[in-house]
Amino acid sequence: MRFVETESDAEESMRKRLRSNSFHSADYPSRNKFEQYAGRTYAPMGEMNFMQQQDDDSRLDITRAKFGSLLKRHENLADRLSRDSDKVIFERLIKEFEAARASQTQEIYLDGEQWNDGLLATVREQVHMEAERKALSGDADVLTGHQEKVTYKTGNKIICCLEGARIGIQYETSFAGEICEFYHCVLESKSFLEKMTVLEHTVPFFLPIRETENDLLSSNAMKFIDHVGDLLQAYVDRREQVRLIKELYGNQIGELYHSLPYHMIEFVLDDFDCKVTVSLRYTDLISVLPTRISVLAWPMLKINFTPIFNMMEDGISGSHPAPVRLSYAEDALRTMSLPEAYAEIVLNLPQALQQIYH
């Protein structure tokens, strides 16, 4: 079978050849002219993308400001609730501990293995003996003067016998060698056959003392007492580190957020050519150094860079340089206290930015 090429088919074939060879001919000026016209369409679209980016940034700043205000209100409310609810208990327990220490006949300092389950059992026995004497006598003052009263001190803890078959633990927290605050925990011991319970305390409500009681107190009271002390000291340490960088470098910190136990901390450094975001996460509530760290440098508009416009199949998309990890800063935060690491970051930041963007 033979196919006959019609006149119209021949003309159509010729047009296709001319189109396919048009850019391979010697007529380069016409091709360049076409590319110039095509290129002119990119600029307006790029400008639109740039304006859209600025609009998004503005809305993000507004949202961030509202969220920051909400967090501040929540923090103030939580602090007020905690302070008001604990104030009466705290003042009463302070007086009880002062009275117990004033009436003591001996204060024993315990080192290392001297603080053990056997000693805690001795304290518990003293508490019950004193309660039985007073119950039998019918007069709380009859034998009190003749009974030896011992207070024990180990680490940041003072352990003493309180009236009513209670064991009192006072925790002394500190930062940089200076005493910060006292916290109290009172254990009730009804009998040797029953487990001890937490009767009252002044531990901040956001620290898991009840969970710790359920996990440890019945099986290992000494470990419970130590763990509560570790929770309190680590909390105060993290809190004071944040307070110190705000006090020393507040003019450089644009935003700072943290959880109530200070085990999640985020802040932004704005006083530089780049916005630097720092995000810290702590493995648990007894850690004083973060384990998950992210420090990113985000280029600001005033840095000397040109937005890159990439031609896509569906148009033009503007893209700014991506944020860059500051590994030296992450290493510093992993091994130093927050104020020390902050000073190290600021000291080396100009050089790091120079290497990255210039």
Automatic annotation (TrEMBL):
A GO term from the CC aspect: kinetochore
Main location: nucleus
InterPro entries cross-referenced by the UniProt entry: CENP-O
Compartment(s) of residence: Chromosome, Centromere; Nucleus
Pfam families given in the database record: CENP-O (PF09496)
Keywords in alphabetical order: Centromere, Chromosome, Nucleus
Segments for region (Disordered): 1-20
Lineage of producing organism: Eukaryota, Viridiplantae, Streptophyta, Embryophyta, Tracheophyta
Biased amino acid composition, Acidic residues: 1-11
Domain of life from the UniProt record: Eukaryota
Family under the similarity heading: Belongs to the CENP-O/MCM21 family.
Protein name according to UniProt: Centromere protein O
